[in-house]
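Minutes, methods subgroup
Present: GH (chair), OT, SY

1. OT presented the first of two proteins processed in the latest run. Sequence and structure tokens recorded below as shown on screen.
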Amino acid sequence: MTAGRAATPSPVRHVDDRERRARLAVRHALHPDHRVTDTLAATRAMTVLHATEAATVHLAVHARTDGPTAADVDRALYEERSVLKQLAMRRTLFVVPRDLLPAALGSASARVAAEQRRLVARAAERHGVADDGPAWLEAACAAVLRRLAGAAPMSARELREALPELTGTVTANLDKRYGGTSHLAPRVLTTLGAEGRLTRGPNAGHWRLSRPTWTLMSDWLGEQVSPLAAEEGYAVLVRRWLRTFGPGTLEDLQWWLGSTKGAARAALADVGAVAVSLDGGATGWLLPDDLDPVAPVEPWAALLPTLDPTTMGWKQRDFYLDPGHTAYLFDSNGNGGTTAWWDGRVVGAWVQDEEGAVRVVPAPRADLGAGARDTLDREARRLTGWLDGVRITNVYSSALMRGARLP
């Protein structure tokens, strides 16, 4: 890729917000007429699924399918291994289709891995674990790889107790609710995971909880994964992102990738992306074989989990989110909570009562007619039945989920 690309060409056509919402309904498999069949198809529809909160993966699949159970999602992750969890864009944990791994590992994951190595080595020095942080980290990584070679998956605690090379703690943010003393071992494993040398094996807890075990990626997949070169990897990611989220702006893409603007701009050029104009005056981008207008769809409803890939797919969200509702539905760091969608717009959140029944909480002043309420209530019953009494807890809870009153 070269840094000095030509100026933005003239848009070939206009894509208004209504069409963007219709594309979202179809491409994201959220319209009931366009749901897909299984976990792999749902993941491919979205390019990747967010996995920071374990339950998001299963709930995101449910929202886009009619048949698969939570056990079916686990089967795809841990038995079929058609999808797997990988740290990638924006240092976020995703579920990715297996065939997307080479692109992610060579581009977004590699960027995250390099930063993780710097941070972990610096923490080891700063907190007195070692005088030479990089050397300590390299020795710890080598010990983990030796221990796991040909072995059953192990948890971070099991590895720490078995390997003196992983001994070390850091203390930070004592004035914060999330502060305190923590072991360095999980951060070593995270680094190896970002590098594609380890991967998360079977979850040691209920599907709604994150209790990962770790194993060599080559053992888990039965083969070595060869990362693509960074430029090629970014091009693959951007091609898939445009197919799922296009049209999106350069700023949307840079944010989603967690890359530099130059890298995002170069990748758009590498895939031959075509400029279109958007409502509000921004320039969006589509793939050259994806320029045909998309017809409107019948109104639809969906209930999406915390950090769902649709909610988190763009940086600029005005075409589906009233800016006045942002404070109710996202936390101060931009993490989206549960969302209720009507006809392509976020109109509220969803919560559960003590028995696990799902109900929709409309956003303030959300314009919901009887048809919208009835359809959302039907989706709430569908989700309640699928959960079958399981109650979901969330790390990232929005003000609307908590029942907080905002000005």
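2. SY then presented the second protein from the same run.
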Amino acid sequence: MSTPAGRAPGAWARERERSNLWTLRLMRWIAIRAGRPAARLVLHPITLYFLLVNGRARRASMNYLVRVLARPVRWADAYRHIHHFAATILDRVYFLQERFDAFEVTSTGADPMQASLASGDGVILVGAHLGSFEALRASAQHRGARVAMLMYEENARLINAALAAVAPNVQLHTIALGRPGAMLELRRWLDDGGLAGLLADRTLPGHSRGSAGPPRASSPPPGGGCSEAVAGGHSSRSRTLRLDFLGQPARFSDGPFRLAAMLRRQVVFMAGLYHGANRYELRFAELADFRPQAATGGLDVEQRVQAAMRAYVALLESLCRETPYNWFNFFDFWADDAAVTPAPH
């Protein structure tokens, strides 16, 4: 499956969130009227409908599954994949309504992040479209943490509208990037000990591509201000690079890691893995620490940014192999793009 000719960069973002808005409203209606046990039964006809009707999602699912499972895949595999996605959307309704009694949630690898929060340092969480971010956000807020999601302004409006319809009394905080004052708002949020999460497995509009030489990481100016414009949470000097992922190069942005370097923050990988039934596992792993007191290992900022990006991709690949049906990027993730900078070796 290839990207349609003339399609604007990042068009998937607008299409994706509009689709999720409709799906979330449907799931909300079912969840509230039927209850979780009955609503989970309804997931089967919904999954079958999307498997049969949405050829693009089905082909993208099978294209991914053949890579991650390393074997020929059948429609039954794609059915299981889409069913996992539908289950997490249904559970999103209950997490937003703080129905934690319905779930068994465990946590792995959170100690480095908890130590930072205990010392008053905010943390940048970098995730992917892997499992449920809502399980992460709701569980963290339930434990008293302050969580904000970083995203583009248009997507922020769409998501806030959808989530407000599901749970109008829930306090949801988003920082809409790509607008004046966004970086100052983010810096203050982190200075106050908040968590700021973003998903780093997609390239976005306004993101610079290609360069004559290796990109340079910026350093914070005196006084902690931001010296360069940042669009969508990505430094204007950030790049989209091709890194090996499940056997073939794919596009990844180093912007989230340059953002963390610019703000001098710890970067922690996050994923809310769905293990079936009512079981979720919150998985964390430190990717980098750009705080002034952190050890550098003799590497400069540029090298540390690149190391963090490679660690992110390696961990994402490992988790996809461990829990293959948790990957929810239903588009051609490996589509070729000649304008993307090859990763330096």
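Chair's summary of item 2: The two ends are 29 Å apart (CA to CA).
Next meeting: continue with the remaining queue.
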